[in-house]
Prior knowledge:
Helix content of chain A is 78%, strand content 0%.
Amino acid sequence: MVNLIFKRLTSSLISLVGVILISFILLDLIPGSPVYEIIGSRADKDTIESLNKKLNIDKSLPEKFFGYFKNILTGNFGESFFTNEKVIDEILKRFPKTFYLAFGAMILSSLLGIFIGVMSAYFHNTFIDKSLISITLLGISTPVFWLGILFILLFSVKLQILPAGGYEDGDVRYLILPVLTLGIRPASFIARLTRSEMINVLTETYINTAKAKGLSVFTILFKHALKNVLIPVIQLIGMDIGTLLGGAALIEIVFNYPGIGYYGLKAIAQRDYPVILGVVVFSAVCFIIVNFIVDILNGFLNPRLKTE
Amino acid sequence: MNTKSFNSNLISGLILLSFILFLSVIIYPLSKSDPFTQDLAHSLKSPSGDFLFGTDTLGRDLFSRTLYATKYSFVLGVIITFLTVVAGTLIALISGYFGGWFDEVLMRIMDCMMAFPFLLLAISIASLFEPGNFAVCFSLIIAGIPNVARLVRGSVIQIKCRDFITACKSAGGSNTRIIFLHILPNMLSTIIVVFSIRIGSVILSEASLSFLGLGIQPPVPTLGSLIEAGSAYIFEAPWWSIFPGIFLALIVFGWNILGDALRDILDPRLQ
């Protein structure tokens, strides 16, 4: 087990260094000097020089990289070009909101996806299975931002039961539509994986034994079979965090939801690079951490991995 | 599932995609309306016999704009996916065939790129360029390569160990010859499957980037930008967003059915 944790920790750390390196390359690739983005091209010499110094632009490449590396490790993503606020402060302020959104969607998609997958496998090759599998394919094919708009149209404009967007602390109603929209795509992926794994498990002999013992269908499906399906499914749920973070950004735009993604995407229009990169690097770090946790969790669930 | 239902999936996918292509390639030029002509007298008209999908604020016909954008998304999706698969396959061939430290380093780089959420990586790359086709294509290709390279590399390594490759080597075949004449043809089914299961999500991502305003700029319509423009008029003109969204979902749905069917037929191991 210690071995497994150590192995995963090393690969996570390598990924982390890689993420910082790639984001640095991206930052360095920006055409033109960011100085002109901030003050326009008609600024006087002194202002340009002082900004050059502040942004480390006049230093050599390795110096710049190690400066950047140190900054990111200490959580310093720089300041917004336009508001001069510290990017990390803004991100941390907005993080809980995006977290509620992603976490809610993860819970919803896991429950819904596993349930649909199990049902679909139980009714394998019947009309129910085929309809469920088509619905999940539709769930994968529908663009989330469009789905969000449809939900607003239905629940806020026509039925007028839920707010069309925005956020207020402590009011769950603002979360319902974004979470629902965000959860549908991952739920479909989870349902499809659960189904295919479940179909295999249901042909195993111990399922026959359980049936012969006269156990109820519910006990067989959700106690005996599901246990053996969960390992790949949990792995997929971990991988879906990436989809959720990307999707969350789009959803936040549709619902005017003031999370991290909204902050980052609004910065694109202004070419506010510290903000864009801060948001992307922060998301990648979250993604790496979640995957690390999922790997370790899987180690606990799967005795074969533990001894590896 | 039996072979019969594979084929029925394959056929329904093909029918759906041909129907969409038929609408956007054959029907679109026949319709008398032009996607760019403004007609302020008819702005924000709801769907009717004259304007099947209604009109936008400038009175442009949304039926022809949607079909134009559909063709656009379709072609862009094919080009992006094709180039991603070509680049990813080349990396996989070289890295998987030669192995060693080169393979190790290359795959580590791919892993690091995969540590970024796909869409966010694509967005940040695209934001470095002027909004337009180049930004969209370049960012989606770069962000997509690691995934393709990982998938294809597995099958390169598998084929590399087969007897006929050893035989070819001992007969004095050069590396280039072995890679392109012996390994590549044996991987074609994997490559086709990777292409067809990717393209749906590529089209969705392309639409997402246009939705965010990183794609080609107005007046050229794309499905993503049409949905975005319509979302501001969701109360007055819901049709503006709804129809392009339906077309987008249908293209992606068609490709996904086709991709699933092809995978089940050609390469069931790739999940």
